[in-house]
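quick q for whoever's on today - can somebody do inverse folding on this one?? i tried earlier but teh output was garbage lol. tokens:
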């Protein structure tokens, strides 16, 4: 039980730093850690991934609020860019959960791995002061819908996709990170609620679960990530845009390698 709690706290701490620094939800760490812990506890393999994803999304909601607040206080959110993407995310998040059971996890991991590597490369092909691309509200909504769908399927906050999109839109990197962090809130809210509702039909879930959300893990991860998210936001606003872009690309390469080669 102690080792289990330590695992939740450590996962939450790293997730919070990632959320604050790069505008991502931290699910790329939380999901595999929860799958490992749930397996060690002896949870049924038939629902273990769904439980990990649903719990990850629920924790990202709290992490996202903390991270977004820190960036907002530093003037790091562009609400004009945020609103149309967030509206699309709200719809896409629900759709993503509904179709999750019909997708091959292995194929999806390869697609995301390749796309993450593409994003890492593209981040350096966009000029730092490029202000020429202005997405329409329709395009922003469509992008948000896609991001919401795929993020809820993977249990991540979506910053891996929204930050590059905002960057292509000509926003400064620090604004991209802050706005991307804000986008993680509707992804987590609508995604986790849908996972919770769908999981209510499963009578084999462990005690202290609300659908596909395991409360002990949610509490442990959220408790630590809320505090470390502000640390990440401070890091993001204390380094140059160039360094932040390089670190973001390194993170995307790491995600890509995990998706492509991790078992």
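ok took a stab at it. sequence:
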């Amino acid at each position: 039980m102690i080792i289990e709690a330590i695992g939740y706290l450590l996962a939450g701490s790293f997730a919070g730093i990632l959320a604050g620094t790069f505008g991502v939800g931290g699910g790329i760490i939380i999901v595999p850690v929860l799958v490992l812990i749930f397996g060690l506890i002896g949870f049924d393999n038939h629902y273990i991934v769904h439980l990990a994803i649903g719990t990850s999304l629920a924790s990202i909601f709290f992490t996202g609020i903390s991270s977004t607040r820190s960036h907002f206080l530093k003037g790091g959110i562009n609400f004009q860019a945020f609103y149309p993407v967030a509206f699309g995310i709200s719809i896409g998040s629900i759709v993503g959960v509904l179709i999750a059971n019909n997708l091959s996890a292995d194929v999806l991991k390869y697609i995301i791995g390749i796309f993450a590597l593409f994003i890492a490369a593209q981040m350096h092909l966009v000029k730092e002061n490029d202000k020429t691309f202005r997405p329409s509200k329709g395009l922003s909504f469509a992008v948000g819908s896609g991001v919401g769908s795929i993020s809820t399927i993977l249990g991540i906050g979506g910053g891996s996709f929204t930050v590059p999109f905002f960057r292509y839109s000509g926003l400064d990197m620090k604004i991209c990170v802050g706005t991307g962090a804000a986008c993680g809130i509707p992804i987590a809210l609508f995604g986790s609620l849908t996972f919770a509702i769908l999981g209510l039909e499963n009578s084999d879930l462990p005690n202290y679960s609300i659908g596909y959300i395991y409360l002990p893990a949610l509490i442990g991860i959220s408790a630590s990530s809320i505090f470390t998210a502000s640390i990440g936001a401070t890091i993001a606003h204390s380094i140059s845009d160039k360094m932040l872009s390089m670190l973001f690309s390194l993170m995307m390469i790491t995600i890509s390698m995990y998706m492509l080669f991790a078992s």
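fwiw The chain has one domain: 2-261. also Strands lie at 209-210, 213-214. so keep that in mind when u check it
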